[in-house]
Amino acid sequence: MGRTLAEKVWEQHVVRRAEGEPDLLYIDLHLVHEVTSPQAFDGLRMAGRPVRRPDLTIATEDHNVPTVRGPISDPVSRVQVETLRKNCAEFGVRLHPMGDAGQGVVHIIGPQFGLTQPGMTIVCGDSHTSTHGAFGGIAFGIGTSEVEHVLATQTLPAYRPKTMAIEVSGRLPPGVTAKDLILAIIAKIGTGGGQGYIVEYRGEAVRALSMEGRMTVCNMSIEAGARAGLIAPDETTFAYLEGRPHAPTGADWDAAVEYWRSLVTDEDAVFDTVVEIDATTLTPFVTWGTNPGQGAPLGAAVPRPEDTDDPAAAARALEYMGLTAGTPLRDVAVDTVFVGSCTNGRLEDLRAVADVLRGRQVVTRTLIVPGSMLVKLQAEQEGLHEVFTAAGAEWREAGCSMCLGMNPDTLAPGERSASTSNRNFEGRQGKGGRTHLVSPQVAAATAVTGRLTAPADL
Ligand SMILES: CC(C)[C@H](C(=O)O)[C@@H](O)C(=O)O
Ligand code: SF4
């Protein structure tokens, strides 16, 4: 019987297998940030161990950095960043600190450097590590004790998840993005729908996505509860990687591409579960509730709790969100628009926002935060920052920013945002803040009208 892509990559990395025990997996790339690494390095220090493969380990400062640069005023954040710097210096780990041209959100910099490649196992003490699966590898978040294990041994004990195929047939209609697709998928299968699975996204609509779009989709796999999400590599993947600083070159490149072409699910492979979605029926999608599965088409109304799968959760969400059932989503007024994060903070996202904002004015507080300093540089080379500032938006330095309340970019209690990030839990963007997850295009149009809006409505 044939094998799925996830099974192929997994098997390639098994260092040790024993009955009744998790597999011991070799890890090809370990990404590190300031929030989940301090105790892991402490553990190494106490055991007198070095980092086994500093050359396969890379760190960045992202969660705690202010996007208007200056000293970090919050003491917890400051200590976290200073600790990462000390640890990376002591253990010989490459770090991209604030002020460095390579700094950025951890899941943006791996792909941008060409470190993230097909067929790899990639881990990070961060749930959105699933982003890297867009290149056709197995990438997942791990806890701090596992971070220590990987630092010490470059391996990780793990049980192999089951396999799920999400087959997306047809093409996304114009104006419908990767973000709308993944929000619709999560609304369909639920925030627990992917639990215990590695999801492979397949089908015509997935093949037609850019690498940026594929990363957006894989990024939110974890919001459906999946362990990881991946997409088979193809010409789009190879074209994205070619020429990047860590991509192979010359004969090595040719050999790598030949191997990467083998990274597909065999025709006769069987998935444990298959979910089907028709891309042609999708429209811009927004969330109305307090988990990423509580979403609906922008053209719909705030649902009645009794019409949802979980009426109690929906009622509570509507109360927190300050929404009344039956209100058209297009009538929901927002105070703040946030464009950024590892979900939608890449150059393609910023171009889409600029296309909407060009020649228009924003009526809300609008933060546009590049996912990395390289994205910032590229956006500025294209003059996108001028479009943003002319429209009245704020153009910032790279970081996680308002994706989560771990730095100065937060919502005030009761404030409502349209946000291109990936989580809308209570308090995610600041205590009492209310978050609607949207695509970059919807974020930009919303900034123009002050209500949830798609560009086609302008
Ligand atoms: C802080 C970090 C551990 C966390 C994660 O694991 O995802 C964060 O990045 C998030 O998005 O909530
Ligand atoms: S941008 Fe948001 S989701 Fe991504 S790593 Fe940072 S906090 Fe987590």
Automatic annotation (TrEMBL):
InterPro entries: 3-IsopropMal_deHydase_lsu (IPR004430), Acnase/IPM_dHydase_lsu_aba_1/3 (IPR015931), Acoase/IPM_deHydtase_lsu_aba (IPR001030), Aconitase_4Fe-4S_BS (IPR018136), Aconitase_4Fe-4S_dom (IPR036008), IPM_dehydratase_rel_enz (IPR050067), IPMI_cat (IPR033941)
Stretches the record annotates as Disordered: 411-439
Signal peptide start and end residues: none
Catalytic activity: (2R,3S)-3-isopropylmalate = (2S)-2-isopropylmalate
Cofactor(s) demanded: [4Fe-4S] cluster
The organism of origin for this protein: Streptosporangium longisporum
CC cofactor note: Binds 1 [4Fe-4S] cluster per subunit.
A matching Pfam family: Aconitase
Enzyme nomenclature, EC number: 4.2.1.33
Name of the protein in its database record: 3-isopropylmalate dehydratase large subunit
The keyword 4Fe-4S appears for this protein: yes
Family named by the database record: Belongs to the aconitase/IPM isomerase family. LeuC type 1 subfamily.
CDD domains assigned to the protein according to its UniProt record, in alphabetical order: IPMI (cd01583)
Entry keyword set: 4Fe-4S, Amino-acid biosynthesis, Branched-chain amino acid biosynthesis, Iron, Iron-sulfur, Leucine biosynthesis, Lyase, Metal-binding
Name of the top EC class for this enzyme: lyase
Function in brief: Catalyzes the isomerization between 2-isopropylmalate and 3-isopropylmalate, via the formation of 2-isopropylmaleate.
Quaternary organization: Heterodimer of LeuC and LeuD.
